[in-house]
Automatic annotation (TrEMBL):
Known EC number: 1.2.4.2
Record's protein name: 2-oxoglutarate dehydrogenase E1 component
Annotated SUPFAM superfamilies: Thiamin diphosphate-binding fold (THDP-binding)
Xref: Gene3D superfamilies: 3.40.50.12470, 3.40.50.970, Multifunctional 2-oxoglutarate metabolism enzyme, C-terminal domain, TPP helical domain
Length: 957
């Protein structure tokens, strides 16, 4: 018989015949015999080749017997290298048993973890899984001594009796280490796992010295918790008791990463075990931790945070060299730190020029319930293999309490079998391991790290353990989990079990485990390091110096204008396209216009203002990283930072980014069209900004409203990270905002939310209204020695409005104006009313004033909403000594926008006898109406109201 080798190779690689799905193949073959056109093309080709007859279409039934096909399956298996030795029987029996053996092997590789010994509490019986029983495939006890060829396994023998094969499979896949990897489509990765696990039968072979070290780490983990429990009774610490093997795992991960060439490990985790990690892995001085328990820690921050949210960094020695460890600061919102860590790692990799992630390792530690329940995990996994967000793979460690929050009923925990099942959609292998077998835990970490370094992909280690003291130390878990906590109360502890095992093996003297306990207790009493050695004077050449940005005041100025000659040079570089790129006609028009803008022939629009800011920054050595769902083109098609060749023949070629070709030794410019995610992407960009103060990091929402999906990042990192943790960050948010009849979800960037969060000079909130303003504010963000988050409420209709365009002179002189007064001559003494506003409504007010001929009205634009520019605003007000009325005019409803938060700032600068009124939409539960005609009526009314008699709420001074 002959067949195309590619067909057969694909069949062997993907068919579950060599698994547990032979009935499906037989069913397909029956359908093929009746009607060859009724089966998929690839199967029809395979069956045609198998019978050595030409392929046919249609419904030509053929009289081909079934049995030769079964025999052929066996023969094909032999040709593929899976020879079988049987004691008796003809070809059909031999073929049936051969297929059965292959099915049995595949079943254990697929389902063996269901029988693995994973639960330290041993609360459930082993489930009935017929596919793991030889009888399911027709084997009897008489077959157990039959020799079968097992060359498609890695057990080290070409031929094995069925009994030994079965034992090998169960030792490998059903011990205290269970593996899930068969869902991976890449055959190389699957074979890698099969070889690694089957060659050692999932059992480590550690030296006595290694075993002693593992026990020392368990002793440290248990010792710290018991010390704190005794000394600080009842204080929250989110104890690790019941999961002490986690510390042995992290120790192995740090040491192993050093041996594999990693120079940095960045860790993100929530509460449980965090204090233990800080002391026993990162080397935080126990005395410093005790001071926090005793409320003696320095209160140098305006707000501060609880001890189990604090980050830390240190340098430790490994056999492969020094490794810098960073534990990210994080809030209580579970799992939200994950994308922040990934962004920080990406910044470090970019700084090192290490796109594969060989030198920096991200490690994320999860709780079982949060891992399964928090959507930011799915978003973060979705980022992991994309160009703009990859970090070379992450090692995920799950501290699996088996219960989630203490009050959870197991029936309500999740909708999947394992808490890690979410990762299967991203083909992330998972190692489930019994926390009471610390050697298996360490082996799992070794394998996970090796896989990550080999394939630059994520991998997960699920440490199945328990939580001795409930959710926290003030909890009484037996109130809701009496059965589980009876088992926990009777458990001697992982350290004790392992110590007894080592004594029984003769690795330790009987008294040594207790000597270790006493030695650790002595270190605690002395407040000494428990990690040896911590490198106190080591500094990597890749470390970032944040000192230039510390202690700076808002008033520190920056010269953001650029010389005319430089303007023209940059403009020419970013508007000159290579001859082999054919842009879309609309894009060509944009670039032709930009070239004219560069020459001063027409006014500069918003897109050109942005581009010139970016070009001038990268030319000066500042990187730019711009990401969002439409950032390359721009949601409103105004940017076109990436030009797509209209004649290209492949989707992955034929693009040109002008901003990558500004200067010979320019800094990087990256523009990234992100996945459809707000929360994880913004978290990632915040993390990037936390590790790189010399790159302008921008996240752009498709519409400003979409920041709602990332509110956790805004609240718990961007707005409060500095006052809680002392972490500086210059991240910039571009949030399109403007009431133009696009309905509730495409109008408002929720200015009021940012105004409410603004305090302690924590961030900058601006609403620029001209192209030159966006140019200067973007440059100011980098040129000032100040790293504070910048939120820009960017326009939509103004992107192409002629009134918002600026002459070149506004780019080559001046800077960002926090307040813009009247631009045209006005008789100040005639002014009776001053309208104060922000954003695009300014242009509508100017137009209405011209229509009304209201020369007694002046209009002031507030371009920086926070920190409020009191000095500049007061100077503008003083120009109109006869003005008795002030009106704040806004597009937003009265309970939204800036009104409630800005009125006291305006009031503070008013003169005695002046009154302040409001003109805008009435208070509303929705950001905007959905009917175009109603929007137009409201817009007309609020603009008219700015010139009408003051009514309703009036604030006097």
């Amino acid at each position: 018989m002959s067949e195309p080798s590619s067909v057969y190779a694909a069949y062997l690689g993907n068919s579950y015949l060599f698994g547990g799905n032979a009935p499906y193949v037989e069913e397909l073959y029956e359908r093929y015999l009746t009607n060859p056109g009724s089966v998929p093309d690839n199967w029809r080709a395979y069956f045609d080749a198998l019978q050595n007859v030409p392929a046919v279409d249609g419904s030509d039934a053929r009289d081909i017997p079934h049995q030769p096909v079964i025999n052929a399956f066996a023969e094909r298996a032999k040709q593929g290298g899976t020879k079988v030795v049987v004691a008796a029987g003809g070809a059909s029996e031999e073929g049936r048993k051969l297929v059965g053996v292959q099915q049995l092997i595949a079943a254990y590789r697929n389902l063996g973890t269901r029988w693995a010994d994973l639960d330290p509490l041993k609360r459930t019986e082993r489930p009935a899984i017929p596919e793991l029983e030889p009888s399911f495939y027709g084997f009897t006890d008489a077959d157990l001594e039959t020799q079968f060829n097992t060359s498609n396994t890695y057990f080290g023998r070409e031929v094995m009796p069925l009994r030994e094969l079965l034992n090998a499979l169960r030792e490998t896949y059903c011990g205290t280490l269970g593996a899930e990897f068969m869902f991976i489509t890449d055959q190389t990765q699957k074979r890698w796992w099969q070889q690694k696990l089957e060659s050692i039968r999932s059992k480590p072979n550690f030296s006595a010295e290694k075993k002693r070290h593992i026990l020392e780490r368990l002793t440290a983990a248990e010792g710290l918790e018991r010390y704190l429990h005794t000394k600080y009774v009842g204080q929250k610490r989110f104890s690790l008791e019941g999961g002490e093997s986690f510390i042995a795992a992290m120790d192995e991960l740090v040491q192993g990463s050093g041996l594999k060439g990693c120079q940095e490990v960045v860790i993100g985790m929530a509460h449980r075990g965090r204090l233990n990690l800080l002391v026993n892995i990162l080397g935080k001085m126990p005395a410093d931790l005790f001071a926090e328990f005793e409320h003696k820690a320095p209160e140098s921050l305006p707000a501060g945070d609880v001890k189990y949210h604090q980050g830390f960094s240190s340098d430790v020695a490994t056999a492969g060299g020094p490794v810098h460890l960073s534990l990210a600061f994080n809030p209580s919102h579970l799992e939200i730190v994950n994308p922040v860590v990934e962004g920080s790692v990406r910044a470090r990799l970019d700084r090192r020029g290490d796109p594969r992630g060989s030198q920096v390792l991200p490690v994320l530690v999860h709780g079982d319930a949060a891992f399964a329940g928090q959507g930011v995990n799915q978003e973060t996994f979705a980022l992991s293999q994309t160009r703009g967000y990859s970090t070379g793979g992450t090692v995920h460690v799950v501290i699996n309490n088996q219960i989630g929050f203490t009050t959870s009923d197991p029936r309500d925990l999740r909708s999947t079998l394992y808490c890690t099942d979410i990762v299967k959609g991203y083909e992330v292998p998972v190692l489930h391991v019994n926390g009471d077998d610390p050697e298996a835990v360490v082996l799992a970490i070794q394998l996970a790290l090796e896989f990550r370094m080999e394939f630059a992909k994520d991998v997960a280690v699920d440490i199945v353990c328990f939580r001795k003291l409930g959710h926290n130390e003030q909890d009484t878990p037996s109130l809701t989990q009496p059965l589980m906590y009876k088992k926990i109360a009777a458990h001697p502890g992982t350290r004790k079990l392992y110590a007894d095992k080592l004594v029984a093996q003769g690795v330790l003297r009987p008294e040594e485990p207790e000597e270790m306990v006493k030695a650790y207790r002595a270190a605690m009493d002395a407040g000494r390091h428990t990690v040896d050695p911590v490198l106190t004077n080591f500094k990597s050449k890749y470390a970032v110096d944040w000192s230039p940005f510390l202690g700076k005041k808002w008033t520190d100025a920056a010269d953001t204008a650029i010389p005319l000659a430089e303007w023209k040079r940059l403009a020419e570089r970013i508007t000159t396209l290579p001859a082999n790129i054919t842009p879309h006609p609309l894009v060509k028009k944009v670039y032709d216009d930009r070239a004219a803008m560069g020459r001063g022939e027409i006014a500069v629009d918003w897109g050109m203002g942005e581009h010139m800011a970016f070009a001038s920054l990268v030319s000066s050595g500042y990187g730019v990283r711009l990401s969002g769902e439409d950032s390359g083109r721009g949601t409103f098609s105004h940017r076109h930072a990436v030009i797509h060749d209209q004649n290209r023949e492949r989707w992955d070629e034929g693009t040109y980014v002008p901003l990558e070709h500004v200067s010979e030794n320019q800094a990087p410019f990256h523009v990234i069209d992100s996945i459809l995610s707000e929360e994880a992407v913004l978290g990632f960009e915040y993390g990037y900004g936390s590790a790189d103060p010399n790159t302008l990091v921008i996240w752009e929402a498709q519409f400003g409203d979409f920041a709602n999906g990332a509110q956790v990042v805004i609240d718990q990192f961007i707005a409060s990270g500095e006052v809680k943790w002392g972490r500086l960050n210059g991240i910039t948010l571009m949030l399109p905002h403007g009431y133009e009849g696009q309905g509730p979800e495409h109008s408002s960037a929720r200015v009021e939310r940012f105004m409410q969060l603004a305090a302690d000079t924590n961030m900058q909130l601006v609403q620029p209204t001209t192209a030159s303003q966006i140019f200067h504010v973007l440059r100011r963000q980098m040129l000032r020695n100040l790293r504070k988050p910048l939120v820009i409420f960017t326009p939509k209709s103004l992107l192409r409005a002629k009134d918002a365009a600026s002459p070149i002179s506004e780019f080559t002189r001046g800077g960002f104006q926090t307040v813009i007064g009247e631009l045209k001559p006005i008789k100040a003494e005639k002014v009776k009313r001053v309208i104060v506003c922000s954003g695009k409504v300014y242009y509508e007010l100017v137009k209405k004033r011209e229509e009304k001929g209201a020369d007694d009205v002046a209009i002031i634009r507030i371009e920086q909403l926070y920190p409020f520019p009191h000095k500049s605003f007061a100077a503008e007000l003083r120009k109109y000594p006869n003005a008795t009325e002030l009106v704040w005019c806004q597009d937003e409803p009265q309970n939204q926008g800036a009104w409630f938060f800005i009125q006291h700032n305006i009031h503070e600068n008013m003169q005695p006898g002046q009154k302040l009124g409001y003109s805008g939409r009435a208070a509303s539960a929705s950001p905007a109406v959905g009917y175009a005609h109603l929007h137009q009526e409201q817009q007309k009314a609020l603009v008219e109201g700015a010139f009408a008699k003051l009514r309703g709420f009036v604030l006097s001074k």
